[in-house]
Amino acid sequence: MTKGKTKWKVFLEVVSTLQWVASFLFLGVACSLLMFYLMFTSLWPIPTLYFVWQVVDWHTPERGGRKTTFVRNWRVWEHLRDFFPIKLVKTAELNPNKNYIVGIHPHGIMCVGAFTCFSTDSCGFKELFPGLTSNLVTLAGVFRLPLFREYAMCIGLLPVSKKSLTHLLTNRGKGNAVVIVIGGAAESLASAPGVNILVMRQRKGFVRVALEFGADLVPVYAFGENDLFKQVVLSEGSLGRRFQELFKKIVGFAPCLFVGEHMGILPYRNPITTVVGSPISVPKHIKATEEVVDHFHKLYMEALSKLFHEHKVSCGLSENHELRIL
Questions:
Q1: 242: which strand partners?
Q2: Of 103, 119, 317, 320, which has the fewest beta carbons less than 10 angstroms from its beta carbon?
């Protein structure tokens, strides 16, 4: 993946990727510890004023946040894209006069494909889908972390809460693509090279939201997402797996035992191809029955499976590679 690149370009890609990994793993905790430490120094007015501001500003993430084009266009995201590289592929038109709930799979360890394609402007989403605005939604707990919440909102991240989704699908007119990593933390525990396991058979909340607001469903598969790190996948029922499940239940994310190359946290240079499928038309049902929800959930899983099998060979998988949906 480094063939034809200058040493300087390779260096910038590595530094940019390390920046992303460090931000994903440590920045939220580091910001919280910094503010806590400053409370016991002569600089205590700074965190005190910030915490007052945070309380006043508490609901901003659920009201659309503060997306900043300047941050989404940082050159560092282009170097992150080129490290793997990451490519966004369009297979169908998306009408800018509609709203969409975009489900992206799989979660992988760090959702690199989802973040790069839908929370930065480095992969050409605006050019491929003119008139649409993408919003990647994530754990609401992210927006309780001091300072880090500001960074997350600048990138365009928003909480995956009912209030946030309602705002995006009602108060912003048309042309909104709300991107949800359907499998969440549970799916990250199954992430491993060469494995394509999705957790979604019992995950129907996104379908209910789509029906409530009449937003079309769009399946997306990020081929290669699971190949970025090697993970120790603990067996179901083991003491370690029970600890991971308990931690996920309490905190919201799963502590994965993963390793990459060079210092262990740098991802492997494996390409990620994020393929956007055809939209599934969803009528508006404010109070949809379980039968209706199940119907559109089944349509979504079938469309996702079809998308996977149609593109798996061109994206580097063998013809007999299977997709498991749990």
A1: none
A2: 320
Distance of alpha carbon 159 from alpha carbon 152, whole angstroms: 10
Q: pLDDT confidence of 1, banded at 50, 70, 90?
A: low
Cα 299 vs. chain centroid, distance in angstroms? 22
Instruction: Supply angle C-alpha 272, 274, 280, rounded to 5.
Output: 160
pLDDT at 106: 96
Q: How far is CA 268 from the centre of its chain?
A: 19
Among 136, 155, 106, 137, smallest CA distance to 272 is for: 106
Six-digit token string for 199: 């957790």
Strands 100-105 and 133-138: unpaired
Distance CA 247, CA 244 (A): 5
Where does 39-73 have alpha helices with state H? Answer: 45-56, 69-72
183 close to 202: Cβ distance less than 8 angstroms? no
Confidence of residue 289 (pLDDT cuts 50, 70, 90): very high
Helix 205-213, helix 290-311: angle, nearest 10:
110
Instruction: Using DSSP, state whether 102 is helix, strand or coil.
Output: strand
Determine the Cα–Cα distance for residues 102 and 136; give it in Å rounded to an integer.
9
Amino acid in position 53:
W
Structure tokens at 125: 């989403």
> How far is Cα 102 from Cα 12, in angstroms, rounded to an integer?
31
Encode pLDDT of 227-267 as tens digits. 999 988 777 778 887 887 887 777 777 788 888 987 778 99
Tokens of 146: 């001091």
